[in-house]
């Protein structure tokens, strides 16, 4: 999962290298949290040319990944973007334009869950 994200967003590699000591065994959710914050910084710097490639990886993780990978793509990446971006004053919906159909469905599922329109976001992951 992480190598695919780095391939799509090479500017994340130095961040990963800098924080690697804190990851221990590269706990995916810690790395994904840093990746989401990195995407926010790129957005704030108007460096979003790589976002479609990132969205393609997120879609691939949802389609081809095992259950834990699909869950990490939804909770670690999509929900991470929603939370981190929103908490930093950036509308997370700005990222939706890059999402492909399956990932966009999971994005909306998260929105529905937090709006109380559904009881469980992970069904079908």
Describe the structure.
Helix 3 (28-44) crosses helix 5 (67-87), helix 4 packs antiparallel against helix 5 and helix 5 crosses helix 6 (101-114). The model has no long low-confidence stretch (mean pLDDT 92). The chain has one domain (2-114). The protein has helices at 2-8, 13-23, 28-44, 51-64, 67-87, 101-114. The chain contains 6 helices and no strands. The protein has 125 residues and is mostly helical. The radius of gyration is 14 Å and the shape is globular.
Short characterization:
The protein has 125 residues and is an all-alpha fold. The chain has helices spanning 2-8, 13-23, 28-44, 51-64, 67-87, 101-114.
Which percent range fits the helix content?
55-70%
**Mean pLDDT rating:** 92
**β-strand amount:** under 5%
This entry's quaternary arrangement is: single chain
Order of helices and strands: HHHHHH
The DSSP helix count reads 6
The span between the termini is: 16 Å
Q: What is the C-alpha radius of gyration, as a whole number of Å?
A: 14 Å
Task: Give the tally of structural domains.
Answer: 1
Weakly predicted, low-confidence segments: none
Key terms:
125 residues, mainly alpha, 6 helices, globular
Strands, helices and their partners?
Blueprint (H helix, E strand, L loop, with lengths): L1 H7 L4 H11 L4 H17 L6 H14 L2 H21 L13 H14 L11
